[in-house]
Structure formats: structure tokens, C-alpha cells
Predict the 3D structure of the following.
Amino acid sequence: MSKNHGARAAALAAVLAGGIACSGCARSPATTDYDLVYTEVTPIEYARILCQLIPLQERHTCMTSVIQHYRDGVDEDRTPEQVINGPFVMILDRQLYRGRYVSQPFAAAFTVRNDTGGTCRGRYNAFAGDTRAVFSVWCDRGARGSANIILDQEGRNGIGKVIMEDGRRGQIVFGYAAVGGDFY
């Protein structure tokens, strides 16, 4: 066997071993089926979304903080008011938008603002004719789009995606356990 062939075989074995060892790793948001009602969302997925704008040298601290906040808050009892509304974060155009959502079984809405004063809102309402739980999104500077969210298995937190009509894409994190600290 040539030296080159042996090196390639060793590299392939390492890749396969890494793939097997990482079979429980978080999936990419691109592979999440947002048409489901709920899915498993791990604390690291929340951290990856929320901390993506943090400088690389500080990102580990941010991610550790998000994960710890989730672990501390996931089993907390919530008041009835906290069950139907809570913190909502959207990242669009490398800008962090913070705000709140309110949700009922057949209708929901959110309002978020960024640091420069830009505001975006989203809503869906089955009673107004919406046939899917997909938010219509509009921003104060004229941008429009849609957002789709999915609950984690706990049912009170989750992630989502926003797609604007001009092709821009963003990500969403919501819920008391998922959103905390500097993001709330």
C-alpha cells in the first residue's frame, strides 16, 4: 500500500469515526422542519443562534451563559401570563431584534426592535383566515416576509426562521428559558 493511500484511508477512518461520535450533535437550522408543531431543540442550538453576532473571542462565554440560563429556567413554573407571552429575538441582516410575543391557540403576534430603532412585527390569526401558523412579517422600513416557528419539546420555547420577500433570511429564538441575560 502506498504512503498516500494509507494517509487517505486514515483520514477517511477519522472522518467516519467523527461522524459516528457526533451522531447526537445538534442539527443545522437548515435541516429543521418548521412545519412540525414541535421538535427537540437543544440548549446549544439556542446558544448558536443567539451568540452568532458575538465576537469570536467572546462567543464561548456567551454560549455558556445561554446554556446555563436554559438549564436554570427550563423547569421553572410560569404564571398564566408567562405561558401566553414572553421574550422573542430575531436576527436579521446581522442585527439583533429584541421584543415580545403573545400567543393564543389560534393566533399569535410578536414585535421586535433593533438598536437603531428598526421595528418588525409578525402575526398569524386563524380567525382572520390564515390557514397555517405562519407569521406575516412587516417592518417599519417597508420590508415584508414570513416567519415560521417550532416549539421545543417542553412546549414553551423554540426556534424559527424568517424569510423576507427580497430573499434575506433570519433566525428566531423565543421563550423564557431560551432567551435571557443580554438578549432579553
The helical segments are 3-21, 43-50, 56-73, 80-84. The beta strands are 38-39, 85-92, 95-104, 107-113, 119-125, 135-139, 144-152, 158-164, 169-174. The radius of gyration is 19 Å.
